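Handoff note, outgoing to incoming analyst
You'll be picking up this chain. Sequence as last confirmed:
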Amino acid sequence: MKKKFSEKQIHILDVAEKLIAKKGFEGTSIRDISTNANINVAMISYYFGSKEKMMSYLYRYRVQKTRESFAEFAEIIKDGKPEMQMKELIKYVVNQLFKFNYFHGFVTQELRHTEHLKDDLLEFYTTFTTKIDDVIKKGVASGVFTNAPKPEDILTLIVGSSLFVIRNKNFYELYVSGKEENYLQDAEKKILANLLVTVFSLVGYTAY
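Most recent structure output, in case you need it:
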């Protein structure tokens, strides 16, 4: 179920997200957030309860915004050829995972005991899987794709591969050329290229 946020909450969450993206969750204090949001420290407690709970609100807010942007994105590409749609879908998910990489550790911990986060993720994953399934069926029907892998397996491959790279920098950076500060950008390019080859191979299309 979609949670409604007040304008003040959205303002605070937007400020908090920008700070956390730069400094990390641990490196961002309540005072940092309140100062940059131009509010009293007590307002964080009033609206969210605590810094940790605010992160939960922030994650739900980000998932909602991602669902909205995905709906717009899906509408834009809906008339494209199946191979183009598949390529863009893969790029979309990989980009979102890398762009908001600072959520992943939090999500792993919170999912153990927070049902609404599971529901939010389930809804998004289901929507995306349905779209992948639609593209695969269109590709097979038109003869562009010769295989029809399960869409949930495609999503698992994309998300699993991306999260592995994000969470295992000490390993994957051995295989990524470039400066350390550019790791995420370079790693994203590398894993995206690999996923395109893998997914198109699975659907039986190689001329991308």
